[in-house]
Design brief:
This protein is mostly helical and 211 residues long. The protein is built from five helices and two strands, in the order αβαααβα. It has a two-stranded parallel sheet. Helix 2 packs parallel to helix 5 and helix 3 (42-81) runs antiparallel to helix 4.
């Protein structure tokens, strides 16, 4: 009941704000920033570069793991071999030292792997963040410029949700949406050989079955 009341109040507030804006000559439009980000041609290009980087990291990681597994096998064989009864005390001491040396080498390899994972995970996260922030800045700059040129007073992002998980904008007319206009500007320099990015369509709701 409380959630429904909040939704009703939000709709009333938005309707009141829109009416007031029209009276005052204010122009309000909406945009789907998620769609703009995903369909901007630079986004899949940057994502492909991040994927290549991640694959290179995975390749290096697998090489480290292969070396580690090899060291573990060698360590196990040395351990099995060190206490054979036919060995003299001097030989057994040499075997014991070989085991300790191999154990130290194996432990170092394990630490190297853990450090590699932490370092490269952080590097990939930072690259992803820089890519996202860079693209979003370009998008914001275009939206702000076009909004000033067109005389828009407010631009609402309709792709966001409230703390309750509800859409931040309950209703808006399609005529107020500038998503396609902004995408057209952003993608005007898109290379001709780039594949078109399709936005997944939301699943259609099936009508409730009558009992």
């Amino acid at each position: 009941m409380v959630t429904k009341l909040k939704l009703i109040l939000a709709a009333v507030v938005l309707l009141g704000a829109t009416t007031f804006a029209q009276v005052q000559g204010t122009r309000i439009v909406t945009i789907d920033l998620n769609r703009v980000f995903n369909e901007y041609y630079k986004t899949p290009v940057a994502s492909a570069k991040l994927k290549d980087t991640a694959e290179q990291y995975n390749k290096e990681h697998e090489e480290l793991m292969g070396n580690y597994r090899k060291l573990v096998d060698e360590l196990n064989k040395l351990r099995e071999d060190q206490d054979k009864p036919e060995y003299t005390a001097e030989v057994r001491e040499q075997k014991k030292k070989a085991v300790n040396d191999k154990l130290t080498e194996t432990q170092k390899a394990q630490r190297d792997i853990e450090e590699f994972r932490a370092t490269h995970r952080q590097m990939l996260d930072q690259q992803t963040q820089r890519m996202r922030q860079g693209i979003l800045k370009e998008v914001r700059d275009i939206i702000q410029k076009e909004s000033r040129d067109a005389g828009y007073s407010l631009v609402f992002d309709k792709s966001g949700n409230t703390a309750n998980g509800e859409p931040s904008i309950i209703f808006s007319q399609e005529a107020l949406d500038i998503t396609d206009d902004i995408l057209k500007i952003l993608n005007k320099n898109k290379p001709a050989d780039m594949p078109k990015v399709e936005t997944p369509k939301p699943a259609e709701k099936k009508p409730a079955e009558k009992k």
